[in-house]
Design goal:
Blueprint: E1 10-16, H1 34-42, E2 44-46, E3 49-50, H2 55-64, H3 68-71, H4 101-107, E4 111-117, E5 135-139, E6 163-165, E7 168-169, H5 180-194, E8 201-206, H6 232-246, H7 270-303, E9 310-316, H8 333-339, H9 357-364, H10 377-380, E10 384-387, E11 395-397, E12 402-403, H11 407-415, E13 422-423, E14 426-427, H12 437-440, E15 454-459, E16 462-467, E17 470-474, E18 485-489, H13 505-522, H14 532-536, H15 538-546
Parallel strand pairs: 1-8, 1-9, 2-11, 3-12, 4-5, 4-8
Antiparallel strand pairs: 2-10, 5-6, 6-7, 9-10, 13-14, 15-16, 16-17, 17-18
Length: 549
Amino acid sequence: MTSSSATRPNFLVVVVDDMGYSDCQPFGGEISTPNLQRLAESGARFRGFHTSSLCAPTRAMLLSGCDNHQAGLGVMQPLHAGNQYMQPGYEGFLNHSVPTMAELLRDAGYHTYLAGKWHVGITDDTRPAARGFDRSFAFLGGGASHFNDARPLSSYEGKQTMYAEDDRFCTDELHDDFYTSTAFVDQMIGYLRDQDDDQPFLAYLAFTAPHDPLQVPEADLDRYAGRYDGGYEAIKRERMERMKQIGLIASDLEVNPGSGLFPTWEELSEDARRSEARKMEIYAAMIDRMDHELGRVLDELDRLGKREDTVVFFLSDNGANPKQPEFYPPNTIETIEAEFDNTLENMGRIGSFVSIGGAWAEVADTPLSYFKTTTYEGGTQTPLIVAGGPVTREGVVTDELLHVADILPTMLDMAGVRRPTEIDGKSVPPLYGRSLAPMLTEQTLQPVRTGMDALCFEMLECRSVLCGDWKLLWMAPPYGKGDRWKLFNLAEDPRELVDLADWYPKKVAQLEGQWQAYAEYVGYIESDGTSAATELGIDRFFEFRLGDD
């Protein structure tokens, strides 16, 4: 079933939460991320890597190698329409029709560890301990305070705002100085140190940073003081220049004018500017702290003599987050003001809940358009760095079209593990991803996908088809009307500003046909426009997922 354990690499899969395309140093950002920079310089960084536009569906595809509609996250809970609720592929958790990377690698002799965000199941049979992880310390929900109060984003989110260690809940046991990024790394280092044999391992390190609420330890609060006082456009221009020097974008690409949905820096009052700048300072500090903590894991691998044999994958789960705290139902502006201390002096501390918002999200995704929740490139194109082990590919790679589901088949390929075609007599959905191993190890000069191979995405009725240089886009409310397809040539227009649908109707028809075939293949269910959580009530919506716990 597998190759010799002596030739099998370890895997460290690092996922950050809601980090924008150009936030970190290797992708042009001003935020200090020296460990990511060194990782990128020792391996390859990719333009053209795509995820879902929401985090749980991305994690389902990462863990399974399958499309999110087949793996149980056709939509992220509690956002189901009435006609999607409890339907196959829309269970709201990583379903059991797909084996996880941990199950597959554990069965092949790997040790399997998880520390960080899970977000694909909260019941006994869907938590990490039941899905292949030998050891796990998991945040089960979508987001919460990064400190030991674990305060949920909203009362709806509270239903899944829990921590679990292995097979038991431990939310009430978080220590006084708990901070997510540090705690997750402490746990992961402990797992690595406790391993007492030479078998290979899978380490899945899933930071909740920089997901809102924007919070950092006291020592980091002023690390970026004053850095963002120049406003949105100034940071965009700086990043664009660095990206051109790196070779990520063309030298003549102009700054993205943005969606026009948000006030410009010049339109803000002085008080609003100070507030906006402060939010971005804290966001940057969260990413800086994440990088520091990642460095501790890499140092530990060096100390253990396992660094050279470890393949590291680093990615963000989707584009930057435009949502404000009142977005999370049933929050309102009034309840946020009443329940949190979001004064300038308290931002970033316990008891605060602020987000970067739409204007900074567009900056974070420079030079791409839009952000998380949309299928514009700003929602689904994220950084990918791969380095270590048998990886010999180096530099900036701009000519590959990649998908988050490619990571699992790549790992199986490198480990010599065959994925089963059925489990308990039931057929297993085929992998949606493709192995990157031949490309990463330079065994072939052929691209992972040709100009005829399409990738399709859908989330909350926003849809896209990527094929060669072309992209077909369907935007649902609130950022689109959901009434027509748009067509872009990404080679000539990576900012998706010029809609060519009227000029190339045959190309639209061709790509729409690929979308229809994809939708039928993965079991897509079009929303009927209702809300299951509203119709059922949030307690009943989550009832079957909570079981007896």
